[in-house]
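ok posting inputs for the 2-oxoglutaric acid job
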Amino acid sequence: MIPEVTELQELRESNDIHGNPAALQERIAEDGYLFFRQLQDPDMLWELRRQMLSTMQDGGWIKQGTDPVDGIAEPGVQCTEGDLEYTDVYHEVYRNQLFHESAHRDIMINTVSDITGRDMTPQPQKVARLWFPKYTAHTTPIHQDFVHFQGTYDNLTCWAPVGDCPIELGGLAVLRGSHKVGHVMDHHFSLGAGSLMINAQDYEPLGLQWHTTNYQLGDTLIFPALTIHMALPNVTEDKLRVSLDNRYQAIDDPIAEHMTEPHLASFSPFNWKETYTDWTSTKFQYYWKDIGMEIIPKDNSFSDRGFHEACELARSGNDEAVHHLRRFAKRAAGTEQGDEAQRVLSELT
Ligand SMILES: O=C(O)CCC(=O)C(=O)O
Ligand SMILES: [Fe+2]
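and the output
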């Protein structure tokens, strides 16, 4: 399913047209992404890396006795989004003030505003990905972001590694020009992060190329909600991949309700008050309430479809679907779908 590395092309750099809105708009309309080397301040990101990985070391994910910035995973520990033990540590990391503030830097707001020609804001829900080595069955599969983040097709995802991210550490790859499909493609059950993927038979006929790079600290990839993308597997021996993927939207566009809550709050209860406990400034707390964006309900049809596919596949003995339902039943016990997952699992034994 993951394309061979030899099929991966180098991302096109757009540093030469940074600050030129017309050129940026023309290029993103053509390529479906923009990539900038060193867009974000590497010193700030290095400090963020130190803080995030120190929290992960306290949580038992980073090998004791090593320097947290080296990102060396504790042997034998592996978990991902959807596992309760993942959110236990993830939400500790989520309380980091610099992690949230970094999305509000002028360089980011100005860049995304130039790209869209509109006044933009980061969405309240900031996202970090903390990826264990050799946990490749759970890698983020091929998808379009709209199924997860919704709102409008014009929303921009900004993906940036917090530390250098060579190909083997599992950075992001985009399918160049894929936004031109102009609609949300069918998404199906996947064991990978987000649990939804586009099947090869649907995107391969587009005849498009995958683009990625050996990312360095500060490098930033920006793309709209219909661009097809995936993460590459983290095949390193022992290194955790740490990255940010924050979303930006026009202040006069609607926002889907779940994007006004902390990430993975639907998996394990977690709120803004808990997020802000140790902050030294209120400047970026609840900032979106002053903007007053229209809040629209989340469309659950994408995730519902994936869930029902997982149930069907589990019944026919598919191991990945069984794994998914076990994880799901544990975190969603007492909900309608949690009970359904449990029922399917008990039919199997
Ligand atoms: O970092 C990942 O594994 C997934 C990121 C992603 O899909 C995104 O930024 O939209
Ligand atoms: Fe994505």
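notes: Residues 129, 140, 145, 157, 159, 172, 193, 229, 231, 243, 245 surround 2-oxoglutaric acid (ligand 1) (CB under 6 Å). The longest strand covers residues 241-250.
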